[in-house]
Specification:
There is one protein chain. The protein is an alpha/beta fold. It has a 9-stranded mixed sheet with strand order 6-7-5-8-9-10-11-12-13, sandwiched between helices. A 6-stranded mixed sheet has the order 14-15-19-16-17-18.
């Protein structure tokens, strides 16, 4: 065991010497910048080792492989390691330690990507910030994010996602965050976690790591008992709704018509009212989290106001799109019972009409799936929406009088035939249903 660790350390040091000369990493032969290093990762349907020489031909300076048959002893540009993914992860951790940039880890069931972007936007008012791009928040994305760090970066905001126990533990061991935030815990990926308690334990792995660090702290919603319970023993910096004496930042919703307007304040100071570009009153927690972290790191209140008011969402998250025929509330990146409930309640409370909902199945819910879809249907029956379309097998099994479609292709045909016009339309479902293809047709 000790010999294996020593061998990995030597291997990492050798790779890092190359990385310092060629500080761009790629895992895709469709993206081979000149001078980059290609890591031949494996997936269920591909083996990157087979493309190592192609990567070199396309401009990579080195290719890292883990199968001897693809290592050419006559070509020093091909480097053989025990496991390419492990090598990539250890290289990223080594680089993170060498650079020494302060890292904020972000995870949670819902809102982690929006919160990550808001934090980066707020901190960007004062600092040079590196942050996770898109959804590069897994065992491959996190190392690739860390390897983008340079000495010019003051702070990094690293998003960490998980759908099975132990994944956050793995990601924290790579990124080694100095502080962190769990946005919330809810019902998602129950097929992988087993139950809600499994979700809480897995997200809590971020706090578990922080407990092993000196001078680490956690940013916590002071009104979330689940998070407060699993954060025991840590230094806490709290934010939330209400007037708690221990809140660094507090706030409340002013309006949501349809964009969120909120007011926030530092401790018991003056209120700051902010108009945002986000749809959904639930986004106030993401806003307050970013304001809290900004205050902790010395961003001025005026700079925080500027950042929050100018942030524009992307990636089909909490977006309002106005087309020639309709107003679309687009939230098609992902869906689980917690986020679906929040989106539907917010849509119900919006003072607009007429309203139409196009909802897709919530995936990876395991044995709870049918029950959770029936719960959504029950809510819809009492919501008073003018029109409801449901998409996917799980909604098809739920007892409903609403119109049902097998897949997004059937929805497209219905749109072409009926051409809904004049509606405010909520579009939400798991990404795999591809409801993101609908907005251009509406």
């Amino acid at each position: 065991m000790q010999d294996n660790m020593q061998e990995q350390d030597m291997q990492t040091e050798r790779l890092y010497q190359l990385f310092e000369q060629h500080p761009i990493v790629t895992t895709d032969t469709r993206d081979c910048p000149p001078g980059s290093i290609f890591f031949a990762l494996k997936g269920e349907t591909f083996d990157g080792n087979k493309f190592a020489k192609a990567a070199l031909e396309k401009g990579c300076s080195y290719a890292v492989v883990d199968e001897a048959e693809y290592a050419d002893s006559d070509d020093p540009r091909i480097i053989l390691v025990g496991d390419c993914l492990t090598a990539l992860q250890l290289l990223a951790r080594h680089h993170r330690r060498t650079i020494g940039t302060r890292i904020i880890g972000v995870t949670g069931t819902n809102g982690k990507t929006t919160t990550k972007e808001l934090i980066a936007t707020v901190l960007g008012e004062k600092y040079n910030v590196l942050y996770t791009q898109g959804n590069f928040n897994n065992h491959i994305g996190v190392p690739k994010t860390l390897l983008r760090l340079t000495r010019e970066h003051d702070i990094a905001v690293v998003e960490m996602g998980a759908n099975h126990p132990g994944e956050i533990k793995t990601l924290t061991s790579i990124a080694e965050p100095d502080c962190g935030i769990i946005t919330n815990v809810g019902k998602a990926h129950l097929e992988g976690f087993g139950n809600f308690e499994g979700v809480i334990r897995t997200k809590g792995e971020l706090y578990d790591f922080l407990r092993t660090r000196n001078d680490s702290l956690a940013f916590v919603d002071g009104g979330n008992e689940h998070l407060l319970n699993i954060a025991k023993g840590l230094e806490l910096v709290k934010y939330g709704i209400g007037d708690g004496d221990d809140l660094l930042v507090s706030g409340e919703v002013v309006a949501c018509d349809p964009f969120l307007r909120l007011r926030w304040r530092h401790e018991k100071g003056e209120w700051h009212e902010v108009s945002t570009h986000l749809i959904g009153s639930y986004n106030i927690y993401n806003m307050l989290a970013a304001a809290c972290i900004g205050m902790h790191f010395g961003v001025s209140q005026q700079e925080i106001d500027h950042a929050l008011s100018n942030y524009v969402p992307s990636n089909n998250r909490s977006q309002l799109t106005e087309t020639e025929h309709n107003h679309l509330v687009v939230d098609t990146y992902n869906a689980n019972p917690t986020s679906m409930d929040a989106a539907l309640r917010n849509f119900r409370d919006m003072q607009v009409s007429p309203k139409m909902a196009i909802l897709g199945d919530m995936r990876e819910l395991g044995d709870s799936s049918l029950e959770e879809h029936r719960r959504v249907v029950d809510f819809l029956k009492s919501s008073g929406f003018d029109n409801v379309w449901l998409v996917g097998d799980q909604f098809g099994q739920a007892d409903t009088s609403f119109r049902h479609f097998k897949d997004v292709e059937e929805v497209k045909l219905a749109i072409a035939d009926q051409k809904p016009e004049g509606y405010y339309i909520l579009i939400k479902g798991s990404n795999s249903l591809k409801l993101f293809e609908l907005p251009p047709l509406l």
